[in-house]
Write a structure and sequence with these properties.
eight-stranded parallel beta barrel; binds phosphoenolpyruvate; 258 residues; 43% helix; TIM Barrel
Length: 258
């Protein structure tokens, strides 16, 4: 079985001002400099990407990647308010989020757009975190695995096996995001295993499916990170609220070290 390097992302969402974003980037990068053996990324709001990239670049031994929360898939043109992948790459962005539940359920992005974005980002040479997850009513109807599989299969349509080393899946039950509730480690592990089985048996075969990292997201904190991350198919996390505090986020990243 391949060893998967754990990956923890900090999604800052629409929070912080410029000075706070710079300070948080500085503290996170300093706390994680020269290790641990975990990949880490932060996803600041668009207006602060340049500042955060600059700050990260100045921390000796920086190990934190620069990520973007969103983008538009077209290369350029009359798309008022949108930001292209080339613009993000210009700022040093290495990884992008696609299909986050807030973009699916608050902004209204559909599976077709999400798939278009996944393919555009991969074709542009970036890494992608594709988020999937069920709503509470779907969970109560026993649809968790079906929703997860459908969102992942749609999202990855047309993605080539050789591109999958740049894809991470984030399982984020919608009812757990920002609510203080999280899936039990056993429930999360079960959902992750089912996703991996779909990757293996439905999409890409054993070698690729075993190598893809699957993050857990939904109210992860330093206090509950370890018990989630020690599950065999949980390869780190996507962190919202707790990523806004440098010490807390650094502790979560460290908890993901195998
Ligand atoms: C998220 O936004 O991806 C997330 C998991 O948020 P929180 O950690 O705040 O639940």
């Amino acid at each position: 079985m391949p060893t998967r390097k754990p990956f923890v992302g900090g999604n800052w969402k629409m929070n912080l001002n410029r000075a706070e974003a710079r300070a948080l980037a500085q503290s996170v990068a300093s706390a994680l400099a020269n290790g641990p053996a975990v990949e880490a990324a932060v996803f600041p709001p668009f207006p602060y990407l340049s500042d955060v990239g600059e700050v990260l670049g100045k921390v000796p031994g920086n190990a934190v990647k620069l990520g973007a929360q969103d983008f538009y898939h077209q290369p350029n043109g009359a798309f008022t308010g949108e930001v292209s992948l080339a613009m993000l790459k210009d700022l040093g962005v290495q990884v992008v989020l696609v299909g986050h539940s807030e973009r699916r359920h608050v902004i209204g992005e559909c599976d077709v757009l999400i798939n278009t974005k996944v393919r555009a980002a991969l074709d542009a040479g970036l890494e992608v975190i594709l988020c999937v997850g069920e709503k509470l009513e779907q969970r109560e109807l026993g649809q968790t695995d079906a929703i997860n599989a459908a969102q992942m299969v749609y999202g990855l349509a047309g993605v080539k096996p050789e591109q999958m080393s740049r894809v991470t899946i984030a399982y984020e039950p919608v009812w757990a995001i920002g609510t203080g509730k999280n899936a039990t480690p056993a429930d999360a592990q079960s959902a992750h295993r089912r996703l991996r089985e779909t990757l293996i048996h439905g999409l890409f075969g054993q070698a690729v499916g075993e190598a893809v990292r699957i993050q857990y997201g939904g109210s992860v904190k330093a206090a509950n990170a370890k018990e989630l991350f020690t599950q065999p198919d949980i390869d780190g996390g996507l962190i919202g609220g707790a990523s806004l505090k440098a010490e807390e986020f650094a502790a979560i990243v460290k908890a993901a070290a195998k």
